[in-house]
Design goal:
The complex is a heterodimer of chains A (about 325) and B (about 300). With about 325 residues, chain A is mainly alpha-helical. Chain A has helices spanning about 5-45, 50-55, 60-70, 75-90, 100-135, 140-155, 160-170, 190-220, 225-230, 235-260, 265-275, 280-290, 295-320, 325. Chain A is built from 14 helices and no strands. Classes of the chains: A mainly alpha (about 325), B mainly alpha (about 300). Chain A: It holds the Pfam family BPD_transp_1.
């Protein structure tokens, strides 16, 4: 890569155009996703006003509430108003908490981001080590052992990992608390103890997926002709890996990381609930139990945005990794 | 170049290759991990099918004076939080878990493959519409999608089946479409078009038979995802509702026994783990084109 050469600059422009196109397509997808979420949660289940008031309500009362909730308007107007509120950061009133959904979520979102951040900080180095190690020693006993381990971890439900972790660390060893308390002004030691088990559980699933994808990305690089050439030239295997393979594998690996971080989103639903962690995912589960649709819609959209951001990051890495675009 | 199709027909016509010997040959090609996986899968399929016949007690019967009892001759897996027989409940739970997940996975894979074939052989705009719709659905994380569906429609057994199938259809479609589009470019398919064959014939007779192996492997993965999804939902109390109980519900209802490390909570949890690990081991051991194509839980 010769920096600053005209060839390279046009490559950057081409990559930039592609990235902008991906961004546009992600926004379009998000719009369609919001349409699907709105259709399923607001249009299909039937009349919310009738349901709120129960069977004994008079038709007048139902009509009044329907008007108050804006349900007497045509579906497309309701969707546009809902979407507008969502974009302005005002997705409506939470029916159960009886306060604006925005406020409920604002109190919870930082917690979920902390949990996700800590998990990523633990999972990424671990997954890198496992993935690269098993790629370098592929088809040896070590690779097979690591493969079995990650396969098992991918296949096991999160609540099983969490349950076993509680059994071992809270009940038997009594090292860690079994629920995570989040409040202002707790010390570092306290915080680490509280976060240890949720992070460990979430990391388990994520590491397994990430390590498998990293292994595939590195093996893909190792099978390229330039590696064979470097080996034929007489370079030592460690030099080939560190100097030749890793710089080329960075983008595919980051791509794999972004893809597998999306596993955090699903895992969080279970883990936050088990450890009674005040995050977005447990909020969403509560919204389902109490059928609090405005809250549910907002949480669902946050998850979809997070997912699309991760996919976009993965796409961008894949574009940057494409040598045909880099060198044009 | 050796044409591959006649070779395959030849091996199928050989008198020695009866069904039994083909199975034996296939088994001998499996590594140990694959055989362990196969054994676990067969075990759970049998237990899922025959569960209630094998159960020593009635599912709802209170048979033990002790709650969270440990193993004994009367109660092989002890008793649960109400003094019911854990083994009997486990066998009944396995029936729900395996049965629901099999039916959902079958529905998801069949719908996915069907739509993929439609998208492949029909005019381009049909493909555009279906693909756009599926890409949208796939951008909603599966657990989140399932939660929204449960909140909107509730969670009776039929609805759970449909919800799980709807959640994993887009993934099945994406994989089947990639396979079908590739096959559609092959010479023999193009020849069939040139012969003037109908679209239905091409989809069913030319493309489908050649993508069946990867689609079956993908079906196995969908099954695992659905087992995990359904037991996760049941664990949260949003899945199979009492008095019915799948394996996830069993873990949930006995959660108070966690402090004692009760078998009533460990047994169903282990049952789920052995089932999902078994399927994964088996799929991972499949040779060549039966390999897993992508993850995606």
């Amino acid at each position: 890569m010769a920096h600053g050469s005209p060839r390279n600059r046009s490559g950057i422009a081409a990559a930039g155009r592609l990235i902008l196109r991906r961004l546009g397509s992600a926004l379009l997808t998000l719009l369609l996703v919001s349409l699907v979420v709105f259709t399923i949660s607001a249009l299909l289940p039937g009349d919310a006003a009738e349901e709120t008031l129960g069977q004994s309500a008079t038709p007048e009362a139902v009509a009044a509430l329907r008007h108050q909730m804006g349900l007497d308007q045509p579906a497309h107007l309701r969707y546009v108003r809902w979407l507008g509120g969502m974009i302005k950061g005002d997705p409506g009133q939470s029916l159960v908490a009886n306060m604006p959904v925005g406020q409920v979520i604002a109190g919870r979102l930082p917690n979920s981001l902390t949990l996700a951040g800590l998990t990523a900080a633990v999972a990424i180095p671990l997954a890198l080590a496992i993935g690269i190690l098993s790629a370098l020693y592929r088809d040896t006993g070590l690779d097979r052992a690591l493969n079995l381990m990650t396969l098992g971890m991918v296949a096991v439900p999160e609540f099983l990992v969490a349950t076993i972790a509680v059994l071992v660390f809270s009940v038997t060893l009594r090292w860690l608390p079994s629920i995570t308390v989040v409040r202002e002004g707790i010390g570092w030691a306290e915080m680490l103890r509280g976060y240890a088990m949720p992070v460990m559980t979430l990391a388990c699933v994520t590491v397994a997926q990430m390590a498998r994808m990293t292994r595939a990305a590195v093996i893909d690089q190792l099978s390229r002709p330039y590696v064979e050439m470097a080996l034929l030239k007489g370079l030592s295997p460690s030099r080939v890996v560190l100097v030749h393979v890793l710089p080329n594998a960075v983008a595919p690996i980051v791509n794999a990381m972004a893809l597998s971080l999306s596993y955090l989103l699903g895992g969080a639903v279970i883990v936050e609930t088990i450890f009674n962690y005040p995050g977005i995912a447990s909020l969403m589960v509560n919204a389902v139990t109490s059928r609090d649709m405005p809250l549910l819609q907002a949480c669902a959209m946050i998850f979809c945005v997070a997912y699309l951001l991760l996919m976009l990051a993965a796409d961008v890495c894949a574009i940057l990794a494409n040598p045909r675009l880099r060198g044009q | 170049m050796t044409p591959t199709v006649p070779l395959r027909e030849e091996s199928m016509l050989k008198p020695a290759s009866t069904a039994a010997s083909r199975v034996r040959h296939w088994l001998s090609g499996l590594p140990t991990s694959g055989r362990v996986g196969l054994a676990l899968v067969v075990l759970w399929l049998v237990l899922g099918a025959a569960g209630p016949l094998l159960a020593p007690y009635d599912v709802g019967a209170f048979v033990s004076p002790e709650v969270f009892d440990s193993m004994s001759a009367q109660h092989w897996l002890g008793s649960d939080y109400l003094g019911r027989d854990v083994l009997s409940r486990l066998l009944s739970g396995a029936q729900y878990t395996v049965g629901l997940a099999l039916a959902s996975a079958l529905l998801a894979s069949a719908t996915g493959a069907g739509l993929a074939l439609t998208a492949t052989v029909c005019p381009r705009w049909v493909d555009e519409v279906i693909s756009r719709f599926m890409d949208t659905l796939i951008s909603i994380p599966s657990k989140v999608f399932a939660l929204v569906l449960v909140a909107a429609f509730g969670s009776s057994l039929t609805l759970l089946l449909l919800i799980a199938a709807a959640t994993y259809t887009p993934g099945a479609f994406r994989i089947a479409r990639a396979l079908a589009i590739n096959l559609n470019q092959m010479d023999y398919v193009q020849v069939a078009y040139a012969r003037g064959e109908g679209r239905l014939y091409i989809a069913a007779a030319e493309i489908m038979p050649n993508m069946i192996h990867p689609v079956l492997a993908d079906f196995g993965l969908r099954f695992v995802f659905i087992v995990l999804l359904l037991s996760g939902l049941s664990f949260l109390g949003l899945g199979v509702q009492p008095p019915n109980a799948d394996l996830g519900s069993l873990v949930r209802e006995n959660i108070s026994g966690l402090g004692d490390g009760a078998l009533a909570i460990l047994a169903p949890a282990m049952a789920i783990a052995t089932l999902t690990i078994g399927v994964n081991l088996l799929i991972d051991a499949l040779p060549g084109r039966g390999r897993r194509i992508t993850g995606g839980r």
